[in-house]
Amino acid sequence: MAVAAKDLTKDYKYGFNDGDEFVFRAERGLSPEVVADISRRKSEPAWMLEFRLKALEHFRQRPMPSWGADLSGIDFDDIYYYVRPAEEQGRTWDEVPEGIKRTFDRLGIPEAERKFLAGVSAQYESEVVYHSIREDLEKLGVLFCDCDTGLRDHPEIFRKYFGTVIPPNDNKFAALNSAVWSGGSFVYVPKGVRVEIPLQAYFRINTESMGQFERTLIIAEEDSFVHYIEGCTAPTYSKDSLHSAVVEIIAMPNAHVRYTTIQNWSNNVYNLVTKRAIAKEHSVVEWIDGNLGSKVTMKYPSIYLMGEGAHGEVLSVAFAGDGQHQDAGAKVIHVAPNTTSTIVSKSVSKGTGRTSYRGHLKVYPKAHNVRSSVRCDALLLDEQARSDTYPYMDVEAQDVQIGHEATVSKVGDEQLFYLQSRGISEQEATAMIVNGFIEPFVKELPMEYALELNRLISLQMEGSVG
Amino acid sequence: MTETAESSQLTREEASTVALAGGDPPWLAALRQAALAAYREAPWPSSTRDEDWRRTPQIDKLDPANFTEPKPVGDGEPPPYLQAALDGQLSSGKVSAVVVSDERGNLQSPLRSDATTPAPAALDLADGLSAEGGVWQSVAGIVAPPGLRKWISLNTVRTRGGACIHVGKGQEPQGYVRLLHGVSQGSASFPRTLIKLEEGASLTLVEEWLSPDADASLLAPVVEVELARGAHLTHVVFQACGDQTVLQSTVRANIGQEARYDVRWNMLGAAWQKSYFEAFMLGEGSDTRLVGLCVGRQRQHYDVQTLQDHVARGAVSDLLYRVAVADRSRSVYAGLIRVEEGAQKTNAYVQNRNLLLSPQAKADSNPTLEILANDVRCTHGSTAGRIDDNQLFYCESRGMGRDQARRLIVEGFFADVVDSFPEGVLRECGRGLVLESLEELARSGALASSSRTA
Amino acid sequence: MAEWIQICDAAAIPPGHAARVEIGDLPIAVFNVNGDFHCLDDTCSHAMASLSEGELHAKTCAIECPLHGSQFDLQTGEPISLPAVEPVRVHQVELRGGELWVALSDEEL
């Protein structure tokens, strides 16, 4: 028979030679030149440049997703993909909306942090704090730095794992991130080491790290434990309207990784994140995910339970105020037998806000004796609020117990009446009820975050947050 | 173009229209033309392109051109398999009317209504349309618009028979009406059933979808229901098609103020099927209970999609769908609860329970919610698993053999669905069909592998 | 034991190339890695993509699916990276006098 063979070898050099002089490109838009620029500025090895260029090609070819939130407002050509010129770095304190300033007051955010969060200052002066933590970690053999440094100083470990959990062409936004990534954290925990203090991305902030295209890679060797926290509850201004981060986690046998995120991006931001973990034998991976801000968030933390006895948990909270759409959820893929998973999703919609839960639970045929439970609850506070729930259950093994439950309702009249009859205003009562509603999530947070979050919810109820 | 023996055409892209014996009323002919335009425009469903069909790749190989042309109606005698059903268990209850059809159109019925029969009027499609065209014109193609889905436009273009069931204001006839829609000889049949209950009326209707085993036929019924204020329809569907038949069905109901729609389905046959059950709560205080079951054996594939759309305030919808799959069979379920803006005080529920009886059986469950009003209570739940070891142990420790214990547990699994069927002949018939199905499973050894300690 | 089916001239698939061939209803992919031939099911085990349109990694003897990037070992069919977790079937392929012959695997899909 006649066959038509295709050439499958690909070359991503685009005709560049090493040693070409590069020009500083502080321009908007995306091109192979911009990508090559990024790589050269960071003095990256050739394999990373090739990785970026290949991802760029895939990004260009891949169509926008046909499902999920409305992304038509993103203009890919109107974005700085790396460094913006100095005059575009931030804004003056006067430009910061009153509402945001008030929130900082009410949440008790320290002065130095305020300027940073509001996009006024380029650097968070936390060097002192960060340094002392780093010394402790070094003694344990733990690596905690930004990804650029990780690639440069620990190339063997980095290369071994980078891109293996989320390949560049996994989806359009992972491809984008793979092409232009910068900053993000690199965490490596050696065998048997338990890192008792939570590692916070907050400590190492600078313009690049808290940027649009962060890439985080966490490797927890056998029998280790680490808790990583990113973000904060305070409203965080970003001039960049597109955030596309990638987080890869590898939990080796018996390791335990907990990754907590609280984001409250300003309402001009499209926050599109790909987060995935591989859980090997008897390991535990937990995603604690709080989505408070942004104009649109699309984020579905996922866990591949690849090793027997592994356990995965996703606990998420989404709060959508006027004009916001939180499209979040969880994906758990049971590949190995004797694995378990729990997903709890709590969402609150206020005003014209919209929350959507999108989940995928898949059990492969060889995954015997799997137990999984999914619970999604949504609270609709106002008439115009909206909530959607789209869970998928795809079960191919017989020896399983899978359960899924979802509820949607408003604040109970009886509950409100009870609280109001005790002299509490309707607003405060609603805040109490909402805080109670998200309690399963809040109790997993470190105390300062929990307190801040509760206070923030109260503020949201007042409608006084910018 | 209306078909003649030589020019009849039915492909994925094109279909020549047919007409009822005695001709179509002009409005129906016009509806068929509109449906034909919609049919031509819509692409054939694809499992790679259409979310609705993602888990049913059988659609990619289905071609309506592969089915044989129906023979002429002749004397309209029901063929043996339909005659057997006519004489079966369901004939022993209080039957008020019987309407029968197959791929050739409506056939002779042992208990036909006519103008002199007191309510309900359950007529052949052609008779109904000519007796009360005005009534049906506002139902046909309105409750189920042809442009909605390719299978609806195809049914509209190619329907040769079905039923028109009209119950007048305040009438509450006793007993039940029977509808039998069959197909055989490798043909395709597109029965169209139109049901309207006027204010305060009530009716119990039993529909059977049938075909003989070994006939690779296609049955694609469309049922349009309209319930006026305070009406109550109890609609029982028994799907007992042969093991080579493909079923594509749509049941769609507009439910008025304080009206109630009870639909029950019991699906045990067919090679593979895609069935839609869709209820629109259009009137304040409307109420619908959808309850059904299916049992999968060998390589059967059940794809059921339900919709509870709350347009009006204060309505209630409650769905329970239980599935047991054995051998290599597969169940796919997608159920949407949609609450439109302003539909406050809604109560809507969906429960899908899947029992996996063998290692290679599969169950996909996709209940979804789209809620645009806030003063509501909506929940959905879904489970999938095998027979519970504890239950098994309990039965065995009381002296039951393993196989017997398993069968009892599966029976228990379906109990609430079976008991929700109207009391009497209908419930007993449903129960009997389920037991028979389980008996077959037990005989073939399928139940034996239904727990880890097999 | 499956029968051997003649596919094509070996010269039709030069090194670094792949071809998709349909054997009845089943699409398979034949790869030439530096002169060695490999044959797998063409359909990726993760989603409905065609492996014969992917990227060939000659050094690691792997094929990368063009859709989501999963890599499969050409010799065993096992997935090397996510998101695929199930292997694709490997079929025997032989060069006989300049012609390529394939015997389909007995394994059930």
Which quaternary structure do these chains form?
heterotrimer
Please tell me the overall pLDDT of chain A. Answer: 83
How many distinct helices of chain C? Answer: 0
Q: Whole-Å distance between the termini of chain C?
A: 16 Å
Instruction: Name the average pLDDT of chain C.
Output: 89
Largest sheet of chain C: 6 strands, antiparallel
Enter the CATH topology name of chain C. Answer: Rieske Iron-sulfur Protein
Query: What is the percent of helical residues of chain C?
Result: under 10%
Order of strands, main sheet of chain C, comes to: 1-9-8-4-3-2
Report strand % of chain A: 25-35%
Give me the Rg of chain A, rounded: 22 Å
Name the shape of chain A in a single word.
globular
Descriptive overview:
The complex is a heterotrimer of chains A (466), B (454) and C (109). Chain A is an alpha/beta fold and 466 residues long. Helix content of chain A is 26%, strand content 30%. Chain A has helices spanning 32-41, 46-61, 98-107, 111-117, 127-140, 147-153, 155-161, 172-180, 413-420, 426-437, 439-442, 447-462, and strands at 6-7, 143-146, 185-189, 199-200, 215-220, 225-231, 242-243, 246-251, 256-263, 270-279, 284-291, 296-299, 302-305, 311-320, 325-334, 340-349, 354-363, 370-380, 386-395, 400-409. In chain A, the strands form two sheets. In chain A, strands 2, 3, 5, 7, 8, 10, 12, 13, 15, 17 and 19 form an eleven-stranded mixed beta sheet that branches. Chain A starts with 5 loop residues before the first strand and ends with a helix. Mean pLDDT of chain A is 83; it is low at 14-22, 85-89, 122-128 and 204-210. Chain B has one domain. Chain C is mainly beta and 109 residues long. Chain C has a single domain (4-103), classed as Rieske [2Fe-2S] iron-sulphur domain (Rieske Iron-sulfur Protein, 3-layer Sandwich), CATH 2.102.10.10. Helix content of chain C is 0%, strand content 44%. Chain C has strands at residues 4-9, 17-23, 26-33, 36-41, 55-57, 62-64, 71-73, 90-96, 99-103. In chain C, the strands form two sheets. Chain C has a six-stranded antiparallel beta sheet, with no helix packed on it. Chain C has a three-stranded antiparallel beta sheet with strand order 5-6-7, with no helix packed on it. The mean pLDDT of chain C is 89. Chains in contact: A-B, A-C. Chain A binds chain C through residues 1-10, 164-171, 276, 278, 304, 306, 333, 335, 364, and chain C through 6-8, 12-14, 16-21, 30-32, 52-56, 58, 63-64, 66-71, 81-83, 85-86. Strand 19 (386-395) of chain A pairs antiparallel with strand 20 (362-371) of chain B.
